[in-house]
Inverse folding.
């Protein structure tokens, strides 16, 4: 059986290396993007030599670059079985301390980039008759934490968008899901989480393995599902 292929947007994000490595371990061929060529090369240098990985410099806020990334992935690997986007925008301020431009930035960074990747991937996946799309939202997309009204609104839009894509295409072999993740125990998270919260946070392996499952044929019955991953967090 031919190896499956995934396109991972923003593979140099804080979770990127763990996610790329998890998919390679699962036998995938991986294409991953970053706006920053230097960060992309640095990440790829840490990947074992001989791995089936393709680094693409692309800004997914630009629909043409998103489409080019999909085409380059298909040119290199011949297929596109799954696509996901790891990073977006974040805002931690009360509404009174923001303006319309701040809201626009959150929508662009989270919803527009997700839309661009999905819109670019869909024609290929529909032609194949199958494809998994995994969007990512934080818990504030369901229930905003204090100071996260703008961020939460943009992630709620991602959740609704995912459900809509599933309604449109799940009977044509497309499996859109949304992973709603709590705090993730990245190296950077040590700077703002106390020791107990860090211990309870989603590990990088837990996050990456959830994505590997959602991209797999075993998740084909989950189209339109919103899956929450909070590990050991308590309210």
């Amino acid at each position: 059986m031919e190896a499956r292929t995934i396109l991972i947007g923003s593979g140099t994000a804080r979770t990127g290396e763990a996610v790329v490595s998890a998919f390679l371990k699962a036998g995938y061929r991986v294409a991953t993007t970053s706006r920053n060529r230097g960060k992309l090369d640095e990440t790829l240098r840490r990947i074992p030599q001989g791995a089936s990985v393709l680094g693409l410099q692309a800004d997914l806020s630009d629909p043409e670059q998103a489409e080019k990334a999909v085409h380059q992935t298909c040119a290199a690997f011949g297929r596109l079985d799954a696509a996901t986007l790891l990073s977006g925008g974040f805002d931690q301020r009360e509404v009174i301390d923001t303006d319309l431009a701040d809201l626009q930035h959150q929508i662009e960074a989270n919803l527009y980039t997700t839309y661009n990747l999905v819109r670019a991937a869909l024609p290929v996946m529909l032609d194949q008759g199958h494809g998994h799309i995994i969007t990512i939202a934080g818990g504030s997309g369901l229930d905003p934490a204090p100071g996260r009204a703008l961020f939460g609104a943009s992630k709620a839009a991602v959740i609704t968008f995912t459900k809509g894509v599933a309604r449109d295409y799940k009977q044509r072999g497309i499996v859109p899901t949304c992973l709603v993740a709590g705090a993730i125990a990245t190296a950077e998270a040590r700077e703002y989480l106390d020791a107990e919260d860090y211990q309870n946070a989603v590990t990088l392996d837990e996050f990456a393995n959830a994505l590997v499952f959602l991209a797999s044929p075993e998740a084909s019955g989950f189209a339109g599902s919103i899956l929450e991953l909070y590990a050991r967090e308590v309210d």
In short: The mean pLDDT is 94.
